[in-house]
Amino acid sequence: MNPAVKQITFLGVLLAVPVSSYFLVFQPQNDAIEAAERSIKERQTSLERLRAATAQSADLEKANTEMHEAISNLENRLPSGKDLDSVLSNVADIAAGEGLELQQFKKLTKVIQAGLATEQPLELKIRGNFDAFYRFLLRLEQLPRITRLTDMKLVRDDGADGVVSVTCTLSIYYQPETTTAASSTRDQGATR
After folding, report:
1. First and final CA of the chain: distance in angstroms?
2. Phi/psi of residue 142, each to 5°?
3. How confident is the model at residue 79 (pLDDT cuts 50, 70, 90)?
4. Mutual angle of helices 130-141 and 84-97, in 10-degree steps
5. How far apart are CA 116 and CA 159, in angstroms?
6. Please, are residues 142 and 88 in contact by the beta-carbon 8 Å criterion?
7. What whole-number distance in Å separates Cα of residue 73 and Cα of residue 162?
8. Distance CA 93, CA 140 (A)
């Protein structure tokens, strides 16, 4: 064989080895590395979404717990149907304690359903000193039970200075006996 042909063949083989190793070895490895990097990025994105969902789940659980506590606190402020008379007695005692004359204290027959609670409206007619009536309202507001005062008509008594006659509707919210039993059953189920 001619030495020039030998050199060209040797040079061709010498160039063919790195070129073929690039296509046969390095190119597949580079493709595998790129695929692995894409897979890692996808999994990291998935993991971030999962972390966000987990954090949101914990936040929702915390909010749910807070809502249950708020509902429980409100239910504790609602007397049962049996305790309604003691609340009425408290209202009468507050009026008497402030020196007001409770002229009329009548349960209205119209009972209003208000969600889980029931609203019992009472018609009140009170006469006495305006300052005493104001203190009565302040003490009524401090009762541990939920009450609402509506339809208030305040009339000044022309015969005496500072004396007023008040007609209003006082609504007391309470839990009917069936709701109280269901609520305690629900609370027991939630704690298990």
Report:
1. 94
2. -85, -5
3. low
4. 150
5. 46
6. no
7. 39
8. 10
CB 134 within 8 A of CB 95: no
Whole-number Å distance between alpha carbons of 132 and 100: 7
Summarize pLDDT for 129-177 with one digit per residue, the tens. 999 999 999 998 888 878 888 889 999 988 788 899 999 988 888 777 6
Identify the residue whose tokens are 């003490």. Answer: 139
Which helix (H) or strand (E) element contains residue 111?
none
DSSP string, 34-55: HHHHHHHHHHHHHHHHHHHHHH
Rg (CA), the chain: 41
CB burial of 63-96 (b: ≥16 within 10 Å; e: otherwise) equals: eeeeeeeeeeeebebbbeeeebeebbebbeebbe
CB atoms within 10 A of CB 98: 20
Q: And the tokens for 47?
A: 């993991």
Beta bridge partners of 175: 80
Among residues 178, 150, 155, 151, the alpha carbon closest in space to that of 165 is found at 155
